Automatic annotation (TrEMBL):
InterPro entries: DNA_brk_join_enz, Integrase-like_cat_sf, Phage_Integrase-like_Recomb. This is Uncharacterized protein LOC110045991. Coiled coil: none annotated. One of its GO terms (molecular function) is DNA binding. GO terms for biological process: DNA integration; DNA recombination. Transmembrane segments: none annotated. It comes from the Eukaryota.
Length: 189
């Protein structure tokens, strides 16, 4: 379940409130299993849509539909979601998309706890990460990949340029600045 949640959060540029439950589950508000639609079907899925019913920037509760494509590698969000749903067929479609065997839905606190535990196991400083790190990471990866700003804004459903606050400059880029400045200075002298 966590792998499907992690990949959906990252590739969907999701806010935590868009895929977890911090209040009693409400099918009118929270993402349920019916909110995932595979194309052409779950067994031969090449992509899926996510139906976000409500979000922070959706005051009129119109919802939105996100499309997540296949990456054909170990980080593939389509494969992760497909495997999760096929392995948990007994969970009713009207229930939260992400829930534990106990029936408890995935909450922001539980997601953050599991994320930090996994990061700590890898020797990383888990205090630097939280549930919003997936959204930040997606924006940073999109910027590093050279995606146009209009597309980053669309993917993250940002209506202003505030998405720029999410993009973290990679360390190797910062390190390369010194040599680029010196090279540029030497050309002008």
């Amino acid at each position: 379940m966590l792998w499907a949640a992690f990949t959906l959060a990252f590739f969907g540029f999701l806010r935590c409130s868009e895929f977890t439950c911090n209040s009693p589950f409400d099918p009118e508000y929270h993402l349920s299993r019916t909110g995932i639609i595979f194309y052409p079907n779950i067994l031969n899925a090449e992509q899926f849509d996510v139906i976000i019913k409500r979000s922070k920037t959706d005051p009129f509760r119109r919802g939105c539909r996100l499309t997540i494509g296949s990456s054909l590698n170990e980080f593939c969000p389509v494969r992760a979601m497909k495997n999760y749903l096929l392995q948990t067929p007994s969970i009713p479609e009207s229930r939260p998309l992400f829930q534990f065997e106990s029936g408890a839905p995935l909450t922001r606190a539980t997601l953050t706890s599991h994320l930090r535990s996994l990061l700590q196991q890898q020797g990383l400083d888990e205090t630097l990460y939280a549930s919003h790190s997936f959204r930040i990471g997606a924006a940073t990866a999109a910027g590093s990949a050279g995606l146009p700003t209009w597309l980053i804004k669309t993917l993250g459903r940002w209506s202003s340029d505030c998405y720029e606050r999410y993009i973290r400059t990679p360390r190797d880029v910062l390190v390369s600045v010194t040599s680029k400045l010196i090279a540029n200075t030497n050309q002008k002298v």
